[in-house]
Amino acid sequence: MICFENVSVTYDGEASPTLKDIDLTVPEGELVLLVGPSGVGKSTLLGAVSGLVPHFTGGTLHGRVTVGGRDTRTHPPRELADLAGTVGQDPLAHFVTDTVEDELAYGMESLGLAPAVMRRRVEETLDLLGLAELRDRPIATLSGGQQQRVAIGSVLTPHPKVLVLDEPTSALDPSAAEDVLAVLQRLVHDLGTTVLMAEHRLERVVQYADQVLLLPEATMGPPADIMALSPVHPPVVALGRTADWDPLPLTVRDARRRAAPLRARLADQAPAPARQAPGTTPALTPSPLPDVPSSTRAGGFSLFGRRREAGAPGAATAAAPDPSAPLVSVERLAVRRGRVEALRRVDLQVRAGETVALMGRNGAGKSTLLGTLVGTITPASGTVRVAGLVPHATDPRTLIRQVGLVPQEPRDLLYADTVAAECAAADADAGAPPGSCRALVAELLPGVADTTHPRDLSEGQRLTLALSVVLTARPPLLLLDEPTRGLDYAAKARLVTHLRALAAEGHAIVLATHDVELVAELADRVAIIAGGEVVADGPTAEVVVSSPAFSPQVAKILAPGPWLTVEQVEEALR
Ligand SMILES: Nc1ncnc2c1ncn2[C@@H]1O[C@H](COP(=O)(O)OP(=O)(O)OP(=O)(O)O)[C@@H](O)[C@H]1O
Ligand SMILES: Nc1ncnc2c1ncn2[C@@H]1O[C@H](COP(=O)(O)OP(=O)(O)OP(=O)(O)O)[C@@H](O)[C@H]1O
Predict the structure, then answer these.
(1) Residue 18 located in a structural domain
(2) Which value does ipTM take for this structure?
(3) Total tally of structural domains belonging to the chain
(4) Which atom of ligand 2 is nearest to 371's Cα?
(5) pTM confidence score
(6) Domain holding 108: CATH number?
(7) Is the separation of the CB atoms in 263 and 558 below 8 Å?
(8) Sign for the pseudo-dihedral over CA of 259, 264, 265, 267
(9) SS3 of residue 147 by DSSP
(10) Domain residue limits at 117
(11) Which protein residues touch ligand 1 with a CB less than 6 Å away?
C-alpha cells in the first residue's frame, strides 16, 4: 500500500541526506510501527508518505514514494486526502476549524459525504475517543491531550485506507492511549486499514504492531526480531534481555509467564532507591543560583513564556527563604478557566530536593497547576506560594530567580533563529558561563546542529533545547510539563541523570507527565489529580502500583515484588 523505492531526502542547506536509499513496502491492512532514535528521520519518512515532504518542508526528495499507487511527488497532500489521513506531532498545526465537532466533520465535508453519514461518524468518534462532553468546546481551550484526541478523531471520521500517525499517543494519558490503540487495531483488523505510526513509548504500542521498521537502517521485520537488535526498546524487552529470556517477551503478560524464577531470585532483596548519591555533581559544573539578569532576551520573553515588562521594577522582593519551610505551598487552591472549574481544593507541598510527579487523565488540571506555580494563571481562591512569593502577583524578573517552566509546547519558549543563538541568549539570561546551554543540549541529545532553526528541529531535539534553556537557569524550582515527548530512551535516561543530580543539590522538581516509566525512574512522590482535585499523594512506589494505569512495566511483571525499574533489577542481580 505504501512503497519507497530508493528514496533519499535532503533538507535545504544540509550537507548529507536525512533519509538515504530507503526501500520498503508497507502491505495493505498492516500496522507498521516506525522506531528509531530522536532526530533520526522518522517524521521525515512519514512526511514523505503524506506528501508534506518536500511539498511543505522544502528540501529534495530523490526516488519514488507511492501510496495506493499515487506518486506523492506528483500528488500534493490535498490530492491524497481521500486516501490517507495524517496526524503530525503538533495537533495545533493540524486544526482548520474552531470547535471539536466541526473539526471531526471537516474531513468528511471536504470529501462530500452525505450529512447522515457524517452525523453518525461524528457521534461514533466522540464516544470512541471520550470527547462527547467537549463537543461544543473551542479547540483552543482544550488541554494538550484533549487536542491530540481531536486530531486523531478528525482523521478517523473519513475512514481513510491509510493512516500516517506521528507519535499519536505522546500527550495521552495511559488509558486514553489504550483506547486509541484499540480503535486503530480494530480498523486494521476489521476494515483492512493500513497504519504507519512512529512512536517512542514502545511500552504502549509494540504489542499492536504487525511489523516494526527501524531507522536509520530501514530494517523491517516481526516486532520480536527487531526488538532483539534495536537500541530503542521498552522496559519489558530490556528486562527480557537482562534475564536472558528467549524468545523475548513483548507484553507484560508474556513476561509474567517467564518471570517466576526471576521473582524467586529477587525475593530476599530490596530495590536500591533509584537516586543518585547525594553530592554527585551533574555533568555541568554547577553555577550559583542566578541573579536577576540585567539583559532581557530578544523579543522580551521570560523563561516561562510571558512577556516581560521591560524596565519595570520588581513588584515583590524575595523573602529570605526559611530552609525548613516548603518551597511550594498550595492550599485550598481553586482555578476557573472559562466555564471549567479546572482545580478545586488542591493542597500540595514540595520541599527543596524533592521530585514530585503530577499524573492523571487528560484534562485533569496538571498544566493548570503548573501555570499557577509560574504565575501565568491566577487562582479563583486559595493560596499559592513559591519560595514565599505569590507567583501571579510577582514581577516575572523576580520570580524567574525562583522558578522555571518547560511548557507542554516547547515552541512557546523558543524564538531565536538558530540553536546557537537560542543557547547564547539562555546563557546571558541565566548569567551562566557562555557555552553552558549548548553543552547541555549536546549532553542530553548529541547531533543537534548549531545552525538549525528551532522550527526545523525534530520534536525531541526541540524539547531538548527548551529543557536546556530552562535547566541552564538552574532555578530552585523546576517545572516540566510532559518533558519526554519525542525523546528516545537513551535521551530520557540522560535527562533523568541530570535531573537527579539537580535534585541532589537541592532543586525541587515538579513534572506533569503521562510517562509512567519516567515517573518510576525519577519521582520521589506522585500526586494523582482527577477532575481538578488531588486524589492521591504519596511515595512513588506506593501510588503507582496501586493503579494499573500508572504502573510501570517492571512493577506489573514482578508484582507483588517492590521493583519499578530495570535498573533496580540489574543492580540486584550484579
Ligand atoms: N524542514 C526542515 N529543514 C531542515 N532540517 C530539518 C527539517 N525537518 C527536519 N529536519 C532535520 O532532519 C532531522 C530528522 O528530523 P525528524 O523530525 O524527521 O526526526 P524524528 O526521527 O522524527 O525525530 P523525533 O523522534 O525527535 O521526532 C533532524 O536533524 C532535523 O533537524
Ligand atoms: N483556556 C481555557 N479555557 C477553558 N478551559 C480550559 C482552558 N485551558 C484548559 N481548560 C480546561 O481545563 C481543564 C484542565 O486543563 P489542563 O490543561 O490543566 O489539563 P491537564 O491535566 O494538563 O491535561 P493533559 O494531560 O491533556 O495535558 C481541562 O478540562 C481543559 O479543557
Answers:
(1) yes
(2) 0.95
(3) 1
(4) 18
(5) 0.89
(6) 3.40.50.300
(7) yes
(8) positive
(9) helix
(10) 2-232
(11) 11, 18, 36, 38-44, 57-58, 452, 456-461, 486
